[in-house]
Recover the amino acids of this structure.
């Protein structure tokens, strides 16, 4: 995350220690507090909302870096494993704000700059609308590009009989 935030903004404490990545991925944060009660939202929820919003944009082929995509491919082969909406999404959530990092694989031929703008707009509006948190930044890393012929690359004859 490129913007500096105080420890109190990101963790809700005055400890002076920066938040650990593990703490931000499982912590529950206050999104709304009124005299009638308090609403808290888990960082995992913000991750999923951001991941789904990013995938809604045409031109996003997949999400995640090489390692997370490899684990995702293994997970898909396990019955009931499915795909995780949080793959390729990292979040840092404070009491009122969120910062989001996305790792994308884009389809060949798509304007990457226009795609990144559309993804950023959709993620910000979806997370803010659904959680009430102020999204202060969405950083996008394009890690790969999917070529049109990569989907059909299967050997025509088996190598082993």
């Amino acid at each position: 995350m490129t913007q500096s935030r105080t420890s109190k903004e990101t963790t809700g404490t005055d400890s002076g220690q920066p938040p650990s990545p593990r703490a931000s991925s499982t912590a529950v944060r206050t999104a709304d507090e009124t005299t009638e009660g308090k609403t808290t939202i888990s960082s995992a929820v913000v991750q999923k909302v951001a991941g789904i919003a990013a995938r809604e944009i045409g031109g996003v082929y997949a999400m995640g870096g090489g390692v997370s995509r490899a684990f995702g491919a293994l997970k898909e082969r396990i019955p009931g494993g499915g795909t995780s909406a949080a793959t390729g999404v990292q979040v840092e959530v404070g009491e009122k704000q969120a910062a989001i990092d996305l790792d994308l694989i884009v389809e060949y031929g798509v304007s990457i700059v226009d795609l990144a703008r559309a993804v950023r707009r959709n993620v910000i509006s979806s997370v803010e609308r659904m959680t009430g948190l102020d999204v202060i930044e969405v950083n996008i890393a394009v890690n790969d590009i999917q070529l049109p012929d990569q989907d059909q690359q299967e050997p025509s004859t088996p190598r082993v009989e």
Remarks:
- The radius of gyration is 18 Å.
- The longest strand covers residues 134-146.
- Residues 85 and 103 are 12 Å apart (CA to CA).
